[in-house]
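Regression check, heme C case 314:
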Amino acid sequence: MKLLMKAVTIASAIVASPALATSWTLDPEGSHLAYGSIKKDVVGEVNSFTNLSGHVGPDGKVEIEIDLSSVETNIDIRNERMIEYVFRKAGTAILSAEFDMQDVADLAVGGTTIVDAEAVLSLVGTDVEFDAEMFVARLSETSVLVSTNDMVFLSTEDAGLNAGVDKLMELADLPGITRTVPVTARLIFTMDDKKAQAFADTPTTIAAAAIDGDATAGKKVFRKCRACHQLKEGRHGVGPSLHGILGMTAGTVDGFKFSSALRESGVTWTAETLTRFLTDPKGTVPDNKMQFPGLKKDEDIENLIAYLNEESTE
Ligand code: HEC
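Current build output:
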């Protein structure tokens, strides 16, 4: 079965105007990625992912990260089952696409167009290719809206998710759940100019006094990092050990192969720079290889930093 989906490709469209040959970052607040499912042939439901991040390079390459653990089905137990059985705790799905910018090169503010895009969704170890027709609207000099023009259909079989869906049916005692899933996306991208400079105007020395979060609460937030990071010195995993991270220069820990983007950022990790980085890892250090969409709540970041400050030097 050929799976069609249309999600994110359009993003690339953004690269449109000649003056816009720059990179773009997905605005997570303004963006929405949802899919539908039908139970027992009659009960239609819409699920979405609340945590998205993404980036479009000057070359028209689009990469969108979908935090699978942020799936919102409006029922907690169902969210948990989706994450465990369907997404198999995979963390992040990556949607990548490449786009011919000529199609939208002359899009003026207020202008719209429709572009074809070819995309690949990498989900739980399976790559699914699909074509998508995307509607692109230039909202302002610095922002573009990209949305699916029609629904995109994704087959759970192609995506390697059938066994997980079987399990859900068994658990919820349902006779049937759709095996072809309609997907819609609304994505807003903003120009990077300012963001790429994020660290440029950050003072590199910020006193530890700025750290006043709740370390106990921060320990819970750190669960989101544990899949990739440990606090013990020298213990690297997917990500580097975060031992003694506050006060360190980015990308310098021995024994971990950092991206050149992070190594060359020259940033010193302080409460301030960490806050910026954890809010929007890709926007702050473009092309770094941490596959994490960022934390949404300022409070979580504050608490997490207090925890790192206390624990990471033990
Ligand atoms: C999916 C894996 C993953 C998750 C989850 C993750 N990280 Fe990372 N992190 C990485 C990788 C990989 C790097 C190295 C990036 C590079 O070299 O571009 C990194 C780098 C970092 C760095 C820079 C380290 C240095 O020595 O300069 C910090 C700080 C960091 N992560 C903090 C966090 C925190 C805090 C969380 C949780 C809120 C988190 N990360 C979640 C994979 C992850």
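Comparison notes: Confidence is low (pLDDT under 50) at residues 1-21, 194-198, 200-209. The chain is about 20% helix and 30% strand. No diff flagged against the previous build.
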